[in-house]
Structure formats: structure tokens, C-alpha cells
Amino acid sequence: MSLSPLPVVGIPCCMRTIGSHPFHIVGDKYVRAVSEGAGAVPFVIPALGEWWDFDDLLDRVDGLLITGSPSNIEPQHYGGPVLDPAPLADPARDRTTLPLIRKALAAGVPLLAICRGLQELNVALGGTLHQEVHAIPGRLDHRADESRPVEVQYGPAHPVTIEPDGMLRRLLGKTEIRVNSIHAQGIDRLADGLAVEAVAPDGQSEAVRVCRTPEGSCPSFAIAVQWHPEWRFWENEDSRTLFTAFGEAVRARAAARYRPPAAE
Known about the structure:
Elements: E1 8-12, E2 14-18, E3 21-25, H1 28-37, E4 41-45, H2 54-58, E5 63-66, H3 91-107, E6 111-114, H4 116-124, E7 129-130, H5 150-153, E8 158-162, H6 167-172, E9 176-179, E10 186-187, E11 194-199, E12 205-210, E13 222-225, H7 237-258
Parallel strand pairs: 1-4, 1-5, 5-6, 6-13
Antiparallel strand pairs: 2-3, 7-10, 8-9, 8-11, 11-12, 12-13
């Protein structure tokens, strides 16, 4: 493998039909958060599912960013009911991200997951989801008002309490931050090996970290947030800190992988 001056972060695509044709797509805000926020080369991963040799794919990257999406994980992956009408799904993405996440954690690849990505992390490790958080008595409506300008939709929506002794507390040095909120689904049963990092005022888990993989290891950086730190990350101190920390973890992995062998 050739050396690169910058580490490489894989970003799995969504599958979308635009007009009459299918496209593999990744939002610009995620590409820029990796390149400008984490200081890494974005490597777009098409949603090809079983076509991939995931071990080979992970040999080509130094980190993974699992993005948000308008689509939702198909409930068959966590034993949930099929709603009527069913939410927008992306089975090609499911077949790509769920096994990729499990492989990445086993290989110790730094991982940052956002919104749908948090939900995929939870499902990949055996957890379940609420499909309509807003329908649960006592819970907030975490969805954005799509009739408002996008800047308003992605504006601060509610506070989250940062759990003590977690990674976010160490990174941010805060007990509470305000976050945007653009999701209908959320964690129901937390997967084994995950620890809650932040909680909304209604009790909804808003951030988690991987404290133990199924193989028994503890990743150096594997964290997920339900909000969208990539949105204009340069304007938000907490978002900048998160992507800087991710970039540092990715660079550390790259340095370890590309370190030349010691001279005999």
C-alpha cells in the first residue's frame, strides 16, 4: 500500500433514485467535516452490500464516518414491527453499513457515527430502536420542522446532559451542551457493549460510545451522536472539538499502520 500524507476516512453512501437512475450519494457536509474538520481524505464507499470484502476495504482506510440519512434502518434487522406506511428505507445501505461497523470495531478502526449512524451502531451490536420517538408518552418531538429554512431546522433544539466519566465529558469538558435535533427514530434497547454518553431532557439517549466489542476489546475511539455536528461544524466549538478528536484518532491509526519496520 502506498503512503499518503493524510489519513483516509471511509464514508458509506446512501442509495438514492434521482430521476430514473440509482445513485450512490454522500452529503457535502459530511465530506467537508472529514476533510476540513478531521484533516483526512474522504473515501466514498458505494452501498454495494455483499459485493464488498469488508476486511480488504478496512485495510484501505484509517477511520470510518457513518452519516445521517433521510432513510431508516429496515426493522427486520432488530425485530421491530413494519409500520404502515413504512418509513423511507435503504436496504443497500443496511447491507453495507451493518456488517462494516461490526468488522471495523473488531479491527480497531476509529469510528464516528452520526444520527442514522448512531442507530446503525446500536442495531449492528444487537440493540433495538424506537421507530417513532415522538409517539412515546413523555418524549419530545425530535423531528425538524421541514417547513422552516434549513438553517432553522439545523439550529440548536434542546440541551443534552453529558454523562460523567465518558469520552464526551473528557473531550468537551462540559456537563451540558445544546444540540440540533433532526430525527424521528432513536435508541430503544441499548446494545451490549455500548455506554450512554449524553441524554436529552426526555430521557432519550443522544450519544453512545463503544466500551466493549463482541470480541472483548475496547476501541480507542468509537463514538456516536444522534445530533448533527457536521452542520457548519466550524461555527460550533463542540463540533470542532469532536471532529478534531476523531482526526487525531485516525492519524494515530495511520501512523501505526504505516510506520516503517525497524532497521535490523
